[in-house]
Design a protein that fits this description.
The chain is an alpha/beta fold and about 240 residues long. The protein is built from 8 helices and 9 strands.
């Protein structure tokens, strides 16, 4: 039964990689060897994202949607609300102060094996194209020796599909109506879902943790490249079943 589950997981993973078109020649164990030792990291503290965009809410969208995505990969992730309160009490809310520094104190304070740092470099909503473009960097570092054990640069586009039918004035009218409808739909888009979907796909590249049935069984799987580009549609969302 275990071999059967691993087989199906491998098939699903390969299908997802193929859809992104960025499968790496390196295996998971080659890209992230720290996860395949006798004492791999188990727990993760998600640090508040570093937001370099003009969308002030993007930070919260990503912060509160990473917890479940990493938990689904087999890690213990410290609850975001409790973590945020503790970080604020310790004046450690600004991740910019720690991303390049010594993070060992966080291991003592939380008991975390790793810290996840994220930097949102782009969140742009196209008013006409009905599309949101996001660029974000992920980095997992250990509190034991400050080493980076996993990183990912993601470019993600969330788009609404629009079908332009007919020609002439009828086609133009149909096009304008569709654009207006898309603008309204985009305005009420659940941006937390957009961030969650971006996180979920990016974390496909994280080796499975101790609490996953595929723990250390994915070492020879082909991982994603360090730079991931993908897009999804609001009308055809591939990850809403999770």
């Amino acid at each position: 039964m275990k071999q059967k589950n691993i087989f199906f997981a491998t098939v699903i993973l390969l299908l997802l990689f193929s859809s992104c078109g960025v499968t790496s020649k390196l295996t998971q164990a080659e890209r992230a060897p720290a996860f395949y030792t006798e004492n791999p990291p188990v727990s993760i503290l998600v640090m508040p994202p570093i937001n370099q965009t003009t969308n002030v809410e993007a930070k919260d969208f990503f912060y509160y949607t990473m917890n479940q995505c990493l938990g689904d990969s087999g890690y213990y992730v410290f609850p975001p609300l409790l973590s945020m309160q503790t970080l604020q009490n310790e004046s450690a809310y600004d991740s910019e102060l720690f991303i390049n520094g010594d993070i060992a104190p966080f291991g003592g304070l939380f008991g975390a094996d790793m810290l996840l740092f994220t930097t949102i470099t782009k969140w742009y909503k196209h008013p006409i194209l009905s599309r949101i473009d996001i660029e974000i960097k992920y980095e997992l570092r250990t509190t034991k020796d400050n080493a980076t054990v996993w990183h990912q640069n993601t470019q993600y586009s969330y788009k609404l599909t629009a079908n332009m039918a007919g020609g002439g004035l009828i086609g133009l009218a149909s096009f304008l109506i569709q654009k207006i409808a898309n603008s309204v739909t985009t305005a009420i888009t659940d941006y937390a879902l957009v961030a969650w979907n971006c996180n979920k796909t990016s974390f496909i590249n994280v080796p499975y943790g101790k609490y996953s049935k595929w723990f250390q069984a994915d070492g020879d799987w082909k991982g994603l490249k360090d730079d991931l580009k993908f897009s999804t549609s609001a009308l055809n969302h591939p990850y809403t079943s999770y």
